[in-house]
Amino acid sequence: MEGGAIAQFLPLILIFAIMYFLLIRPQQKKLKDHQKMVEAVRRGDLVVTQGGIIGKVVKVRDDGEIEVEIAEGVKVRVIKATLADVKSKTEPAEAS
């Protein structure tokens, strides 16, 4: 009887394992990569928001916001987590 019970749960276990490796694990990796990208944003980077706005980072704030210049003299505050991509990265300033 015990062998029959294990055989009944085996397909469920296999389905969960497949779902984990095909859906859950890649999503977690993508989230970690996005968090690293957001944490590495610096002044001067060219960024794209999830709304499709492209601009240059003017100021990085401590409260999870950045100031982005989208046109000459036009600056908007953007939540860091809403960044979709960093197009061009600037080199970190060297400590003197």
From TrEMBL:
Location of this chain's protein in the cell: Cell membrane
Keyword hit for Methyltransferase: no
Segment forming the signal sequence: none
Membrane topology term: Single-pass membrane protein
Pfam families, A to Z: YajC (PF02699)
Biological process according to GO: protein transport
Keywords associated with the record: Cell membrane, Membrane, Protein transport, Translocation, Transmembrane, Transmembrane helix, Transport
GO-annotated cellular components: plasma membrane
InterPro entries, sorted: Preprotein_translocase_YajC
Segments crossing the lipid bilayer: 6-24
Family listed: Belongs to the YajC family.
Task of the protein: The SecYEG-SecDF-YajC-YidC holo-translocon (HTL) protein secretase/insertase is a supercomplex required for protein secretion, insertion of proteins into membranes, and assembly of membrane protein complexes. While the SecYEG complex is essential for assembly of a number of proteins and complexes, the SecDF-YajC-YidC subcomplex facilitates these functions.
Subunit structure: Part of the SecDF-YidC-YajC translocase complex. The SecDF-YidC-YajC translocase forms a supercomplex with SecYEG, called the holo-translocon (HTL).
Database matches in PANTHER family: SEC TRANSLOCON ACCESSORY COMPLEX SUBUNIT YAJC (PTHR33909)
Protein name: Sec translocon accessory complex subunit YajC
Source organism of this protein record: Pseudooceanicola batsensis (strain ATCC BAA-863 / DSM 15984 / KCTC 12145 / HTCC2597) (Oceanicola batsensis)
